[in-house]
Design brief:
With about 230 residues, the chain is mostly helical. Among the domains are: about 55 residues, lambda repressor-like DNA-binding domains (434 Repressor (Amino-terminal Domain), Orthogonal Bundle), CATH 1.10.260; about 100 residues, no CATH class. The protein is about 60% helix and about 5% strand. It has a two-stranded antiparallel sheet with strand order 1-2. The radius of gyration is 23 Å and the shape is elongated.
């Protein structure tokens, strides 16, 4: 199914008219018709996330070509399973993958690998994950480059920077985060407290681990007092 066909299918399944969908995603009514007839195919990812939210599905359902990966002779049941998997949230998908890996025979591992690819893609376009990672990235940049930021004296004033790749591209930071174990509840941590925010010096840890890797408050205070007396 194409993106336009999926929009039409899930819109009808939701009981919405083209006008209903247009109103909810704040576009002109003919625009939805053009999407579904594929007169317009270059729909921005931000708009697809908005459409998926209205339709109650994961944006991956719209993005992943569910007819072509791995095999062309997939049955209706298999297709339905894959689409159901793609509609789960990240935590549910991980749980399903763990169960499948324990149950499937070796010759069926290609199906697991395909499901893992869907998981990876779904996390890249998950609006909740993207929103949180944008917040993390903005926090790093602010405390390292803005003197009026409350935490600047502990980061930017000490010469700590965010690598240019992450400053220039949210996608680069997002892809690194997802490929290096990011999940909800973890915080970004610099392995070397005197080093920069960059791929080789960062990792995802729990809040407790992050607190253990920070400098003792007394050390901060002594350093700040020395600077004030200069």
């Amino acid at each position: 199914m194409t993106v336009g066909q999926k929009i039409k299918y899930y819109r009808r399944a939701k009981g919405l008219t083209q006008e209903d969908l247009a109103d909810r995603v704040e576009v002109r009514h003919p625009t939805v018709s053009k999407w579904e007839r594929e007169e317009v195919t270059n729909i921005p990812i931000e708009r697809l996330e908005q459409i998926a939210g209205v339709l109650g599905i994961n944006v991956t359902v719209l993005l992943v070509d569910t007819e072509t990966p791995a095999r062309q002779d997939r049955t209706d049941v298999e297709q339905a399973v894959l689409e159901a998997f793609a509609s789960l949230n990240s935590a549910q998908q991980l749980a399903v993958l763990n169960i499948v890996k324990q149950m499937v025979p070796t010759h069926a591992l290609d199906a697991v690998q395909f499901a893992e690819q869907i998981l990876k893609d779904s996390r890249r376009y998950d609006p909740v994950i993207n929103q949180h990672l944008r917040h993390v990235r903005r926090g790093m940049i602010d405390r390292c480059s803005k003197p009026n930021c409350r935490a600047y004296k502990w980061y930017g004033a000490r010469g700590i920077k965010v690598c240019e790749k992450w400053v220039n591209s949210f996608e680069a930071f997002r892809d690194w985060a997802i490929s290096h174990g990011y999940c909800a509840g973890l915080e970004i941590d610099r392995i070397d407290n005197d080093g920069n925010y960059e791929p080789d010096n960062c990792r995802w840890v729990t809040h407790k681990e992050n607190m253990q890797n920070r400098r003792p408050s007394g050390q901060w205070n002594r350093k700040n007092k020395k600077e004030e007396t200069k």
